[in-house]
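Tokens for chain A. Residues wanted.
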């Protein structure tokens, strides 16, 4: 073990005692979301029979945990995109509308026409699936570019700019389908939402790929630092030479791209596109997931992994409420309580008041 010697004085290397280790763990940004997820899993372990049971059927892994991960995939994608938007002090409440547009475009183009091949009926896509998926993602990117243009180019408030697309986007999706549900009959399309690869749902691989690529961009390039700088002080970032408008434009396009992919997964899973309900209120769950993961609504520092954990908390909470046979309305009440507690924990005034009360309590005890 090395030591430091200056003018004959030997100093022992700096060591962290167990209390310091415990303090560092308790104050880690991911401690609270991980603790909340662990608490929900403990409730499921005690109250939901066979919650942790996994089994293999036809080479696929099944169980409650797999079901939660699979159903959380669209929310995780939306939360990843929302994380970067919130990191720049923005907000995007048009995520659900982008989901509806993406799902509608893909479902309308793919559709499915029954043909006879060697006397056996089968369905073929109306448009090649690759082109249909590209068109759906292209529509999502156009939505993101629209939001980015309004916020970064015209300087509109993010909540107002994205509110326009939130209303108009879902209206456009309903116009495309005449308010009807578009059913898809093309089997390969279903693989995106309900297919399995190496025993796990294929949607999890899509989520993992987006997460890894995003994390690499944020950690291995200066992009993550630039986004944080814009969120902390956009004026100082612009004076420092950063192209803040371009960065803000990028995060809104990225958020819509994630929402577009989520729309493809949702429509492939239910084998149809419902413009009225696809992605409904998904943006609110995404915002809650991001804040649960430790990202501040004031902008600046963000955590992609925290947002993933936040999305898993929301999906686990929903699964738990349904499994216990509680009314679905309770889910909304619990979410509202969680939002209140998260906002309270991020309030500077509340923190000041809490520290003052603790100091007064310690003074009275002394």
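Reply:
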């Amino acid at each position: 073990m090395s030591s430091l010697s200056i003018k004959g004085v030997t100093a022992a290397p700096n060591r962290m005692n167990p209390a310091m280790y415990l303090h560092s763990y308790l104050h880690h940004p991911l401690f609270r979301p991980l603790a909340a997820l662990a608490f929900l899993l403990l409730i499921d372990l005690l109250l939901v029979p066979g919650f942790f049971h996994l089994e293999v059927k036809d080479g696929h892994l099944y169980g409650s945990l797999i079901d939660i991960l699979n159903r959380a995939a669209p929310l995780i994608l939306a939360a990843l995109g929302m994380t970067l938007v919130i990191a720049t002090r923005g907000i995007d409440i048009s995520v659900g509308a982008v989901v509806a547009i993406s799902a509608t475009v893909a479902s309308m183009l793919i559709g499915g026409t029954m043909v006879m091949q060697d006397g056996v009926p089968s369905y073929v896509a109306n448009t090649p699936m690759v082109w249909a998926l590209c068109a759906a993602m292209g529509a999502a990117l156009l939505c993101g570019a629209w939001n980015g243009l309004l916020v970064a180019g015209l300087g509109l408030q993010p909540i107002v700019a994205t509110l326009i697309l939130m209303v108009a986007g879902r209206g456009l999706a309903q116009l495309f389908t005449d308010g009807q549900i578009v059913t898809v009959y093309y089997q390969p399309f279903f693989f995106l939402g309900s297919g399995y690869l190496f025993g796990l749902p294929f949607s999890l691989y899509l989520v993992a790929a987006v997460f890894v690529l995003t994390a690499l961009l944020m950690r291995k390039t200066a992009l993550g630092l630039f986004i944080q700088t814009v969120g902390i002080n956009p004026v100082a970032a612009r004076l420092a030479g950063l192209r803040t408008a371009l960065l803000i434009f990028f995060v809104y396009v990225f958020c819509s791209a994630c929402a577009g992919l989520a729309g493809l997964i949702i429509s492939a899973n239910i084998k149809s596109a419902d413009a009225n309900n696809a992605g409904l209120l998904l943006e609110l769950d995404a915002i809650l997931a991001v804040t649960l993961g430790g990202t501040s609504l004031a902008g600046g520092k963000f955590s992609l992994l925290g947002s993933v954990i936040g999305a898993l908390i929301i999906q686990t909470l929903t699964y738990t409420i349904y499994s216990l046979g509680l009314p679905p309305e309770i889910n909304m009440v619990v979410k509202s309580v969680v939002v209140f507690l998260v906002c309270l924990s991020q309030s500077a005034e509340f923190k000041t008041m809490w520290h003052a009360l603790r100091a007064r309590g310690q003074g009275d005890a002394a």
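Confidence is low (pLDDT under 50) at residues 1-9. The chain is about 65% helix and 10% strand.
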